[in-house]
Amino acid sequence: MTIIDGKKISQEIRNEVKLATERFKQEKGFVPGLAFILVGENPASQSYVKSKGKACEETGFHSITERVPATISEADLLTMIDRFNTNEKIHGILVQLPLPKHIDEQKVIEAISPAKDVDGFHPANVGKMMIGIDTYFPCTPYGIVELLKRSNIDPSGKHVVVVGRSNIVGKPIANMLVQKKQWANAVVTIAHTGAKDISYYTKQADILIAAVGKANAITKEMLKPGVVVIDVGINRIDDPLAKNGSRLVGDVDYEHVKEIASAITPVPGGVGPMTIAMLMVNTLKAAGGKL
Questions:
Q1: Could you list the active site residues?
Q2: Which of 92, 83, 28 is nearest to 285 (CA)?
Q3: Per-residue pLDDT tens for 140-173?
Q4: Closest CA to 65 of 52, 78, 76
Q5: Looking at the 3D structure of the chain, how many domains does it have?
Q6: What is the per-residue pLDDT across 213-245, written as a single tens digit (0 to 9) for each?
Q7: Domain span at residue 91?
Q8: pTM for this one?
């Protein structure tokens, strides 16, 4: 059984982005710029933005973090986005989700210029992804593809079962892996809570991608021996033995599933670090650079 080390692979990618940024600066005379907009004081959002800012610093990017109160009006937030849309030093814009209930998330996503949509959420970029045109791919699914690629796990012809249908992970990873191209070309099934017996589908998986949002939802009994497991979930559960009384687990019952899997991502240290690494790749691309 192989443990797919997302921490190690993501660091390799960040090192590659750093070298590419140094070359880019020498050739173009400027560096990629990324703007973060953080609305409110959600602790998880603050942590994510801080990690992304550190990644920018490490890779040599220029970054700006705008922190605004949760009471900001939708109109003022859209004005701020428009300001970054026209800022030539900013090549990527990321509005950290979730947003307060009085702000329409979809309207905010669509306000970001598709050329600066390094999250890959704008309908124009989602449409390109759907029909197989190169674009900015959503960072977590993009990271999953890169994990498979760098672990030499070719999905071509394999049955990939995606558990989850979110716009952030489930739908885009299914679309990316079904494309007729290298490191894709899979037979893809999307399973979700609408299924009467979800294990009917998961037992067929050669590659299982779990994006459920429920701790230990995928058990050993739901899978066949030799399956490759990509666990996207990040769930905090109570653990009286842990230092702070809780610990992070995935959507997959890791301790038991690893007994039958041929390869598996841990939580933490699997898919999570890849999301930030691919954000750096998308921003480099938005500036006109490449690895």
A1: 52, 96, 119
A2: 92
A3: 999 999 999 999 999 999 999 999 999 999 999 9
A4: 52
A5: 2
A6: 999 999 999 999 999 999 999 999 998 888 888
A7: 28-113
A8: 0.96
